[in-house]
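User: Okay, second chain of the day. Same drill as before: sequence in, structure tokens out.
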Amino acid sequence: MNKNIASTSSFTERVQHLFASIFSYHFTRTPVVAERLTHFGSYASMAFRKAGASPLLQLLGEGLIGEFKAVEILVKNRLNQEVDDVDLESVIMSVREEEDTLFILATSADEVPADDYERLFRVFTRHQVVIVPLGKNDIEQLEHFVKSGNLNACLVYLFMRTDRVTADPWDEKMMQKHGGAYATRAAWQEKAITARLEKMAALQGPQLRTLIKKLHFLMSFEKSGGEVAKACTAVGISRKTFYLWLEKDTTFQKLIDIKASDL
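Assistant: Same drill. Structure tokens below.
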């Protein structure tokens, strides 16, 4: 077998195995593995239908990113797996009528260019379809979390990537252009959330809904400037619930207590 073909197949299998592992966490449903044909080629497709109860889609709903009912993971079925302009247009044309599905487009390119996020934001605003691009570095990071049994980190990582697609890139450009306290705070927020990822494995619910609330709180906590009252309002819990979590869940307490010196 041609080495390039074998490599392409291997990457597709890696991606599908990764997401099978992520979605089997608190959620048992067999995915549909097939091909998605587009105007400019085909993509290996692994779709989880009726997946609204999956932790990832619940977390996205909790964060008001979208009320998705299905997830489809796409990987390019050709030797060159880097996603170019034609690929993006091809996928967009194929999926733009499926508003209730979250699409994850994986590529073996190391990084996803910033321009791709801007284009996919425009697709989101125009068609209300969310396509989340993941590069090889993203896949490797998620594989690391899975191997260490840290599925909570996978959920937050994918939430952050989805949030980037649905957030207006103009805001980020303005922060970079003008700098100042706002840009510094935004950089700190992302750094603090990322620092918590490695420490999330032992975070528990005990019910799934409580776990989802805790994960959402950890992200809202930084965005609210570390103000408990604001974070509680954003997540829809009382301060009493927050302090009960601190008392009963030592992992949650440690994640809240992360300071700048820990980053």
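Residues 1-6, 178-185 have pLDDT under 50 and may be disordered.

User: Thanks, on to the next one.
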